[in-house]
Amino acid sequence: MKFLKLLHRNETGVAILMVMTSIALLAFLLADFTFETKVNKLRVYNQQDMTQARLNAEAGLTFALAKLRLYQEAYNLLEKNESAKKMIDPRMLETVVSQTFMFPIDDSLLKKANLIQRTAAKDFSSSVILSGKMMVAISPMSGLLNPNTMRVPSEAPEPEETDPSQPGSETPGKAPTPPHAYIEKQIYDTLFAAFDKKRQEDEIFDARYGNTDINLLVKELQYYVNDPDRLTGPEFADISGKYAEDNTRPKHAPLVSMSELYLLKGWDDAIIDLIKDNLSVHDVTILPVNEITKSQLKALLPDATDFQLDEFFKAKNGDEKEGIPPKEFNSVQDFKDFIVKDLGICSETSFDDRVKEFENAGISLGIVGKLFKVISRGEFGRATYMLTAYVDMPVVPTPKKKKAGTDPGPEGGDPESGGIAPPPGTPGGTDKKPPTQLMLPRVVELIVE
Question: What is the number of domains present in the chain?
C-alpha cells in the first residue's frame, strides 16, 4: 500500500508529455499556417496574372478601336471622293481591318519572312511594352437578321399612285411586302432550316422538339418586341396567356442584348442555340448588294419576274460559256443603275420608293458594313481574359431639306450661288444624295468571358 501511494505521488515525466502535446499542436498550427500562406500566395499570383491578362485584353480592344477609326476615316474619304472610290474597292477596307493581330509574333511566321521583315518585327517587339500575349480579331457583321425590325410601324404609309406605263411600276391592287413582314419570313425560314438540319442529326432533339410550331415561335418573338396594340391574330392571344400564367410581362420593346432571348417562354436554350449565330439586336440589317440572294432581291423588287431575276444573277455572277465576266458593284448607285438602266427591271422612282421604305424599317443597302465584332484575348501566365465587343459606327444623319421660301436668295435659290437654284440632276442639284458618312466607332455591347 505504501508503494502504491508513492507511485501515485510520483509526477515524473508530466512535463515532457505537456511539451510533446504543445509541439504537436504547434506543428499542426504551423502546417495549417504554411498551407494557408501558400494558398494565399497562389491566389495573389493568380490575381496578378488575371489583372495583367485583363489589361492585355483591354489593350487589344483599344487597338481594335484605333483600327476601326482608320477604317471610318478611309470610308468617309472614299464616299466624298468619287474618283478614289472607283479606283479602290470599298471592300478592300474590310479586308485590311479584318486582319487578325497577334503579339508576340509567332516564330513560325518569322521563319518565312525575309531579313527586312524579321528586322522590322524584332524592332516592333522590342518597342512594345506588353507582358504576356494578346490576340485581336475583327470581323464585319452584315447580312444578319435583326428581330427588332419585326416591329410594326405605328402608321402605315399610304400607297402612292404609280403609272402603269412605267416599267417596273407596282401592279394595281398588289401591295408590296412590308419590311417587317420580310424580316419575319427570313427568320422563319432560317429557324425552319436549322430545325430540319438538327432533327436529322440528333434523335433526342427530334423526339423533344419534333412537333414544335416554328411559326408560333416567330410570332412570340414578334410579340415580345412589338407594341401589343399593333398586332392582330388569334396566336397573339395564346402567347399573351402563357405570360399571364407565370405572372410575367413581355418587354414589348426592342431587344438590346442577345441574352434577352432566354426570357422568351416558348424558346428553350436548345432552340436559341440553333439561330443565335444568325441574329443580332444591333443595327446590322444591311443587304450587301454584292451578296444579295434571289429571295432578298424579290423582297426588294416584288414586281420582278423570275426571268428578270435570273437575268440579274446571270449578269452579276457571269457566265463562262457565254464569256460574260462577273460584275461587282462598287456603290449602291452602281447597283441601282444596273437594275434600272441596264436590265430595266423597275423604274427609278419605284426603286427609290422601295429602298426608302426599307430604310424606314432599318433595312438598307450597302457595300460594306458599319458594325464589327471584336474579340480581344489577353493571356499572362495561366490566366486568360477575353472580351467580345460589338462596335458600331452610326451613319451621320442627313440634314433635312429646307422648305421652299426659307432663307431664299435674290431669286429664290441658294444665297451662296447668287440666288440661282441649280437644276435637278446637275452638280449641286436638289436631287443628289449626299455621301454617306460614318461617326466615330463606339462599343454598343461588351461581353466579358
Answer: 2
> Which residues, other chains included, contact 420 with Cβ-Cβ below 8 Å and sequence gap of 6+?
409, 411, 413, 414
Closest C-alpha among 164, 144, 184 to residue 347: 164
Residues in CB range of 65: below 8 A, 6 or more apart: 374, 391, 441, 443
Give domain status of residue 382, yes or no. Answer: yes
Residue 222 covered by a domain: no
CA distance 293 to 184: 16
Average pLDDT, the chain: 79
pTM: 0.69
pLDDT tens for each residue of 219-257: 999 999 988 888 888 888 888 888 888 888 888 888 888
pLDDT digits (tens, 9 = 90+) for 272-283: 988 888 888 887
Q: Domain residues for 295?
A: 290-367
What would the pLDDT profile of 15-61 be if each residue is shown by its tens digit? 787 888 888 888 888 888 888 888 888 888 889 999 999 999 999 99
Estimate the crossing angle of helix 14-80 against helix 90-97, to 10 degrees: 170
pLDDT tens for residues 75-104? 888 888 878 877 887 778 888 888 899 888
Question: What is the Cα–Cα distance from 374 to 65, expressed in whole angstroms?
Answer: 9
Instruction: Note whether residue 449 is domain-resident.
Output: no
**Is 429 domain-assigned?**
no
Going by DSSP bridges, is the β-strand pair 101-103/133-140 parallel, antiparallel, or unpaired?
antiparallel
d(CA 351, CA 339): 9
| C-alpha to C-alpha distance for 344 and 365, rounded to whole angstroms | 19
- 315 in Cβ contact with 327 (< 8 Å): yes
Q: Are 198 and 212 in contact (CB under 8 A)?
A: no
